[in-house]
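Standup notes
- DV: blocked on the single-chain target, sequence here:
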Amino acid sequence: MIRNGGQLLVDCLIALGARKGFGVPGESYLAVLDALHDTGGKLDFVLCRNEGGAAFMAAAWGKLTRSPGICFVTRGPGVTNASIGIHTAMQDSAPMLIFVGQVGTDMKGREAFQEIDFAAVFGTMAKWAVEIDHVDRIPEILARAWKTAVTGRPGPVVIALPEDMLTSMTEVGPITGPSDIREPSPDAATISDVTAHLHASKRPLILMGGCNWTDEGTSALQAFAEASDIPVIAAFRYQDQFDNFSPVFAGEAGVGMPPHARRLMSEADTILAINVRFGEMTTDAYTLLEVPEPRQKLIHVHASDAEIGKIYVPVLGVQAGPNAFAKALSPVQGGWADWRAQARADFEASLDCPPQPSPVDMGAVMRHLWEVLPDDVILTNGAGNFAVWPNKFYQFGPKARLLAPQSGAMGYGLPAAIAARVAYPDRMALCFAGDGDFQMNLQELATAAQAGAQPIVLILNNGIYGTIRAHQERHYPARVSGTNMVSPDFAMLARSYGFHGERVERTEDFAAAFERACASGTGAVLDLVISEEALTPRRTLSQMREAALAAQGQP
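- DV (later): unblocked, structure below
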């Protein structure tokens, strides 16, 4: 069969297992769009409103499904818009393939219209950046790109598609399917050494993270931790990967780290870190473990050898996949029952918060959501102080998921919720957004409506860029600059996109409004009136300012 490059690329993606692609059309990859017309629904194109939103959706798809999220954008402005999703997928270790139309091969290097050097721009942002320079190489490069995205430390791959390559004809057939590449497994001697290190401990701790866990892997890890009575904490924004109702779960090490989680990391004498990239947030700016040799004995397990010893020198480094490693573990006993019990008690206590000085009290809102949300709910958020509520005041059971960016990218939550609804149409996707965060990608409400993938959105509307204001008050108290916001009528805006929209001005009105949102069938946006004083659950904006003024010797 003779086909063009666009047709061959789409046929390869279908064979590899791709079923949805997110994107914004561009003239540079018309041959791909034309090929998508004839897939018969095997590979659907979800039309987005901005390339940044499309890339966020693909990144969230990869994080949620463990299969590469697919994104299509055009060259120059298109892919630079999409770069925020590429960076987010890399920091999240989420598999993603982003296909970018490129100038024709006869124009390369001339700074042609919208031309960029993909290797130079994305070489350090993505796991791999490549350009397909000949149509016959499409199957080869797509097979390698898919493998690269899902193995080792998963991540994004950027693939440039010159226009003339896509329209060139070839007799080469598509790849028949993805490679069956198994996780590296630890040998018996390695497991024996891990067991010996843990057995010699007085205060062991398991730190786990990453999005490439299977149900069997997390079940095995939970069974090991519970049989061994060892506390478990999750790396930044990966607490959904372990059952929070387990008696060994003790919280998340991330932004706004609770004192008990910081204490666990600091006081542990042995840390078994599984599938963890040691980022700034998980280590409290690299202070909880000394660089390069921690005082804690560190056992670092990761599928990628590039992550082991990258920052911290472990006493034992194990190159193994998280699921294979967890299944190989055998229970270990020691005298640390009180250590585990205290860790759990401290975590449970951290879920309580005082009444909030706000027309809508988010502590009360979260308590209501605990009672009414389905077990398999998918929570999403972008970046801002508001994210503390889904990240620190919700317990994730084994079926619930959290899609939240380790990159701290504003605007991620809404596209992620849309991707979740595309992936799982029968599950609830609930997006938490600040008023600033929501306005980064609110146009994607149109994407959701067109795709029939409408989530429910809670906008925590306090009229300020809250995170920046908090830093401002700590460092430059009472000198507000550039952080007050004037926003539209969000409820009216939601209705213009076909969503149910309401403004909630009192805590006692939330339950009924949320019930109406769930019953609407159209997706919903609830605009919650939040006081700027309620900037963090346990410290008001005025208290931050007063403390900073006092530290500077000012009244």
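- Follow-up: The chain has a mean pLDDT of 96.
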